[in-house]
Specification:
The complex is a heterodimer of chains A (1008) and B (215). By secondary structure, chain A is an alpha/beta fold. Chain A folds into 4 domains: 5-39 and 715-756 and 764-1007, Alpha-Beta Plaits, CATH 3.30.70.20; 153-215 and 390-531, Rossmann fold (3-Layer(aba) Sandwich); 217-382, 3-Layer(aba) Sandwich (Dimethylsulfoxide Reductase, domain 2), CATH 3.40.228.10; 565-709, Beta Barrel (Barwin-like endoglucanases). Chain A is built from 33 helices and 41 strands. In chain A, the strands form 12 sheets. A 7-stranded mixed β-sheet of chain A has the order 7-6-18-17-16-8-9. In chain A, a hairpin with a 2-residue loop joins strand 6 (153-155) and strand 7. Chain B has 3 domains: 11-40; 54-80 and 119-212, no CATH class; 83-114, no CATH class. The chains are: A alpha/beta (1008), B mainly alpha (215).
Chain lengths: 1008, 215
């Protein structure tokens, strides 16, 4: 039946949603993206391959095919010599461990297949991960199988054995250590800290510096100002009805986000129209996921946050020395009035939290405000902390010692100070002045390159260790695999250096925790290892009162030094590399940034007004012209002696006169993945402006650069109809008034169905819901899916052609103006339509429906016509244009095989797809099959919640439900009955099994 | 201009070209026929590193299959036994046998024995022993009378069509679970009848959709 398009009801858009400037401008390139499955030319051979080459390849392929047919390849089965208990070949074993990064730790549960770690999940027992895992933790498994990691101990460039080093230790480390220094990353391991103490005891004249490029020092300093002694302030987002985040990306990259996200999400979950939510106000310069999740987002220069905080304090009756005008313009002053009213109305149930980029005075002021509002003891918990100098001070002292010639031996544990130390320290030169430079790490980086002795570190999945959090929650790190090379952990190296009696990692951590165990110690220890956490260890809470006078004094002093004129630079961690440590991690490099959707690169983010001011563009479309990729104009930024040339990118909703620079890219010495990605901005980062730097000179400079952004890929917008109902959003008030408000946005009554619904005769009918109200777009699901389903990474050149393989496309929509945009995130994967349009066009029946409602994909049957992808209204099918798994980094050069070690990570339960195959989300069919077979064996039905898809399991906000929609009592069925439930592209009536729960925003009624 | 070809060439062309094409087609068809799993794979009998006789152990001595293949009921793989399993008996029995040299060496040196895989499925097929054995599909249905084989060879094609034959009509291959490893099981009434009863009783419904085996 041919249906005239006019007969489909056209929804009246309440709000316009857009993904990019090209979409608003409706440029030709954008149209191309929207209408074509892939942009024009994407299916062609890459440049440089001639017909001759092609024939050569074809000939070679034929010859090889002929040869392989001659003899059947012999396959071997190699069983163990002696059996290991609980080890059943082909069955995964899960171990609890802990992932530590930048001074905090999160419990993980590691899936191992026949002794190979393959996937990282969150440890449900751990109070900070609660079963969720961040993108960094999940992707850290690639570090274990990184072909570029340091695989050999070295001295002066020559390979040595560990014992050679051990023999040298007495000569290298002699005397009282007056000429001995240590530099490590921030320590989150009690055993490590204990050995550090013992080391300093043995070498009393030695000094130890801890340094991380992204520190929490200002928060510590702020608390010290406020309370007059070291205290750690711990925020509880669950206890707050009103949250004010001051340049604090608490859901994103500014904190250990898993617990924050869980607490925040618990206050956003709306089940029926009586439920209430918290209200989140965010003031920030860049656009963060927290800003995207906020109910009110104010864009203002990071340097103006202090003034804004002072204004809040003044309105609350504190003599904070508020500026004459509120930064952020008219909107900000309006929001400020309401915000203060809201805070006053929620005394004891609100929270004002400052981010790590803000100076100590803002933190102190925030604590004072919290005290004034009675939040301390409720949403703000005070914990005991120890006195320490700031990390920058520690590093500064070390550099001074090095330059003074008083250091003979410097031991660097991890990190990459040559790359990431403040530019004004000139660490590289200072480092060269130490005679013996020992670097212990996994990453073959800039620091390793200029060290005299390189000790290869064991990956955390290879070694015993432990991790603790700021609140004292402790966990044990246990090895999953013996070191692939001969790596040693930090604690083992330290134990050797001090000549400790117990040198093995296991003995060291046992010694650390022996006193924490009681009763039958052997049994208690086994339980600790099994659970992964040490129960009953926590920091003592303290009560303290904020010294109002000191805080207000500090605020005024800070306000006096602050110069808010000119363009400020703000340094932020990267969703790809963090501070540079994940630079060689392909999953993280290719996961599109939650906001900019950039892959494999960073850019200088600025607002439209700033771009105009710099003469970069007359309007936003000019800078962001050429979709799929857009050529970005280079700008040159000078600050002090540093100069950086970096492409500029207009970020909707960015503060004016502010440039956000992402750290961690542009490494000079990194592996084959990270090589040539992005631009190094550390040369602009000085000790005086580690987070926010004023006084930079910015100018347009010659040249353009192609950035690989995925923001227009898979656009669902239709030219004929503006499908604004793809993401649905109403205010909480409107939802209270009309609890069908979400469904009313586009209430479709499809009168026809293109295909007949097949007979779904299984008692299990799988379905999914995604709660857009708690999803904030962090990418954890995207990486989890990649890890679980052996999804290839393709590289920047392929992303530019729209060939990224992620099964979950994390769509990010803006709404509002380019100047002051709001954001909604929507993860989009195969919707498992009951009447799937893809199935009918497959000439070989490679994609068909199963009896349980799955839209199945038989890879071995697929011949790669790509008709299915062409016919998919959600654009969620992915095609392997090349053999990405085998020729990963340089896919068209014959013979450049991907390193074999990388294949150790593969999940053996999922086929590794080759060239010419279509693939897409399967609802983790391997997990379904595993549970189904187990349930059959035990003669019982499958229990609700027994099957968790990879994305669902790892979601920090628990936004995803999966289960049997045929069972009315299942969690997913109940979610689908909610008034906020809707299907995307409902008018097509393809009956998708994945539906969404609409987004509710909770703006203050006075501001609507 | 002189003719390039003689007139008789026309006839030759008309006869030979179809002949060549036909011959080519015959060769291709024959090659395909030879390559069918039922021809190519059935009878595959590789040489094993240890001259182990299933006939002796499972047949004459009457050992249960699961003594060695102990994970068959709880995992996808029916594990090939560890050297330790062999040595359970052979540290007392036939301790000096030359045939067992490799086994003893393996145990002493802690080096695995590289057994050769007989039943090879493509990597995209996720066959699960647990699902079959616990539902009453006997070893013999796929592996034949291993208890009579001195050297194991493949008896069934293990092709997709062959799998589906049974998945569509499982009755002839379903037996009470207790007889799964009794390869010479002889029921007193037609096996298919018993199979049908068990299918009804247990609600056995083998998957015939792609994702049943391909993931």
């Amino acid at each position: 039946m041919i249906v005239p398009i006019q007969s489909i009801k056209k929804p009246q858009p309440a709000q316009q949603y857009w993904r990019s400037a090209s979409q608003i401008a409706n440029t030709a390139k954008f149209q191309d993206w929207m209408h074509r499955e892939f942009p024009e030319g994407a299916s062609e051979l890459p440049e440089g391959s001639t017909r001759r080459n092609l024939l050569k390849f074809m000939g070679a392929t034929l010859a090889l095919a002929g040869l392989t047919a001659c003899r059947r390849p012999e396959e071997k089965i190699v069983p163990l010599v002696k059996g290991a208990e609980h080890l059943v070949p082909g069955k995964p074993v899960y171990y609890n461990s802990v992932f530590t990064m930048a001074g905090s730790s999160a419990g993980v549960m590691v899936e191992t297949h026949d002794g190979r770690p393959t996937k990282i999940e969150g440890n449900p027992n751990h109070p900070h991960s609660l079963g969720a895992a961040s993108t960094y933790a999940q992707a850290s498994i690639l570090g274990l199988y990184d072909p570029d990691r340091i695989a050999q101990h070295k001295k002066d460039g020559n390979a040595i054995q560990w014992d050679d080093f051990a023999k040298e230790v007495p000569f290298l480390f002699a005397g009282d250590g007056a000429k001995l220094r240590f530099l490590s990353q921030r320590i989150a391991s009690p055993s490590y800290a204990r050995l550090k103490g013992e080391t300093l005891k043995k070498f009393p004249a030695a000094k130890w510096a801890e340094y991380e490029p992204l520190s929490g020092d200002t928060a510590k300093e702020g608390a010290r100002i406020a309370f007059g002694r070291p205290v750690a302030a711990n925020y509880n987002f669950e206890a707050a009805d009103v949250v004010v985040a001051l340049d604090f990306d608490f859901l994103g990259m500014d904190a250990s986000t898993l617990l924050n996200a869980r607490q925040w999400a618990s206050r956003r979950r709306v089940r029926d129209h009586h439920d209430h939510m918290n209200r989140v106000y965010v003031a920030e310069s860049q656009f963060s996921v927290t800003g995207g999740a906020a109910d009110h987002r104010l864009r203002m220069k990071a340097g103006d946050i202090l003034a804004f905080t002072q204004a809040i304090a003044s309105k609350l009756g504190l003599e904070a020395g508020a500026p004459a005008s509120v930064p952020g313009g008219e909107k900000a002053s309006k929001v400020l009035d309401v915000l203060v009213k809201d805070l006053q109305a929620h005394r004891g149930k609100s929270l004002v939290a400052a981010g790590p980029r803000q100076p100590a005075a803002v933190h102190a002021l925030a604590l004072l405000i919290n005290q004034t509002l009675g939040n301390i003891g409720a949403s703000v918990q005070l914990l005991n902390a120890t006195e320490s100098t700031t990390e920058v001070e520690q590093l500064k002292q070390l550099v001074a010692d090095l330059n003074g010639g008083s250091v003979e031996t410097l031991v660097v544990f991890g990190g990459n100070p040559v790359f990431d130390a403040p530019a004004d320290f000139d660490f590289a030169t200072a480092y060269g002045k130490a005679k013996t430079r020992i670097y212990h790490g996994e990453d073959d980086n800039e620091t390793a390159a200029v060290s005299t002795i390189i000790l290869q570190a064991a990956h955390y999945l290879e070694a015993w260790g432990d991790g603790v959090n700021y609140d004292g929650a402790a966990a044990i790190q246990q090895p999953m695999i013996s070191p692939l090379f001969d790596g040693k952990s930090q604690i083992e190296v330290l134990a050797t250096i001090i000549g400790a009696e117990k040198k093995r990692g296991y003995e060291i951590i046992q010694e650390t925790w022996d006193s924490a165990l009681s009763g039958d110690k052997a049994k208690a220890w086994r339980k600790v290892i099994h659970d992964g956490v040490i129960a009953g260890v926590s920091s003592a809470t303290v009560s303290a009162t904020v010294n109002q006078g000191a805080v207000l004094e500090a605020a005024k002093a800070q306000a006096a030094v602050k110069s808010s004129d000119g363009i400020e630079l703000v340094f932020v961690p990267s969703s790809h590399c963090y501070d540079g440590r994940f630079n060689n991690n392909a999953w993280l490099q290719e996961a599109p940034d939650p906001i900019t959707k950039l892959t494999w690169d960073n850019a200088a983010l600025l607002s439209l007004a700033t771009a105009k001011k710099l003469g970069l563009a007359d309007d936003v479309y000019q800078l962001e012209t050429e979709a799929p990729s857009f050529s970005s104009q280079f700008i040159s930024i000078k600050l002090g002696s540093g100069e950086v040339k970096i492409p500029a990118l207009i970020q909707p909703g960015h503060a004016d006169d502010s440039i956000t620079l992402t750290l961690g890219f542009g490494r000079q010495k990194t592996g084959q993945v990270g090589e040539g990605t992005g631009f190094n901005v550390y040369p602009l980062r000085n000790s005086a402006g580690m987070s926010i730097a004023a006084g930079a000179t910015v100018a347009k400079t010659a040249g353009t650069y192609e950035l690989a952004s995925t923001q227009d890929h898979g656009s669902l917008t239709d030219v004929l109809r503006t499908r604004t109902e793809i993401v649905r959003e109403v205010t909480l008030d409107d939802f209270h008034k009309d609890h069908h408000a979400i469904q009313h946005i586009a209430h479709e009554h499809p009168e026809f169905q293109l295909y007949e619904t097949p007979a779904y005769d299984s008692p299990y009918q799988w379905g999914m819901t995604v709660d857009l109200n708690t999803c904030f777009g962090c990418n954890a699901c995207l990486v989890a899916c990649q890890s679980e389903n052996n999804i290839a990474t393709v590289g920047k050149s392929q992303v530019l052609m729209g060939r990224e393989m992620h099964w979950v496309r994390m769509d990010r929509y803006y709404t509002g103006s380019v100047e002051d945009a709001q954001m909604v995130a929507q993860p989009m994967a195969c919707q498992h339509c009951e009447t799937a349009p893809c199935e009918n066009v497959c000439p070989v029946a490679a994609t068909v429906h199963g009896p349980d409602g799955l839209n199945e994909m038989a890879y071995n049957r697929c011949v790669g016509t790509r008709y299915c992808s062409n016919n998919c209204p959600y654009k969620v099918r992915r095609f392997n244009f090349f053999d990405y798994h085998n020729k990963r980094y340089d896919w068209f050069t014959l013979g450049n095989k991907a390193p074999e070690i990388a294949s150790l990570q593969y999940n053996p339960d999922v086929t590794v797809r080759m060239r010419g195959i279509m693939e897409k989300c399967t609802y983790c069919v391997q997990r379904i099959a595993h549970v189904r077979i187990q349930a059959k064996t035990e003669n019982r039905p499958i229990r609700d919640g027994e099957i968790q898809t990879a994305c669902q399991q790892t979601c920090p906000a628990q936004a995803i439900e999966f289960g049997n929609v045929a069972d009315p009592e299942s969690r997913v069925s109940k979610a689908k009955k909610l008034d906020t439930n809707y299907a995307v592209l409902q008018e097509l009536n393809v009956r998708p099994r994945t539906t969404y729960l609409g987004r509710l925003r909770n703006p203050h009624p006075e501001l609507v | 201009m002189a003719q390039t070809f003689k007139k008789s060439f026309d006839l030759k062309l008309r006869v030979f070209v179809p002949l060549v094409v036909l011959l080519g087609a015959c060769v291709a068809l024959f090659a395909i026929y030879l390559g069918l799993p039922s021809n190519k794979d059935v009878g595959y009998q590789p040489v094993q590193p240890v001259e182990y006789s299933h006939k002796l152990h499972a047949g004459n001595l009457g050992m249960d299959c699961r003594y060695c293949h102990n994970t068959v009921e709880k995992a996808a793989h029916a594990a090939i036994p560890t050297t330790e399993t062999c040595m359970n008996c052979h540290h007392r029995v036939k301790t000096n046998s030359a045939k067992l040299t490799l086994v003893r060496e393996s145990f002493a040196k802690d080096e695995s024995i590289p057994w050769v895989k007989v039943h090879v499925l493509p990597d995209y097929v996720y066959f699960n022993h647990q699902a079959h054995v616990t539902r009453g599909v006997s070893c013999v249905s796929c592996h034949g009378r291993v208890d009579q084989m001195i050297k194991v060879s493949q008896v069934a094609p293990l092709s997709m069509g062959w799998c589906l034959d049974c998945h569509r009509n499982p009755a002839p291959n379903i037996r009470p679970v207790e007889f799964v490893t009794k390869l010479d099981w002889q029921p007193d009434r037609p096996a298919e009848e018993i199979g049908r009863e068990l299918i009804a009783q247990k609600g056995i419904k083998p998957p015939t959709d792609c994702a049943g085996c391909h993931r």
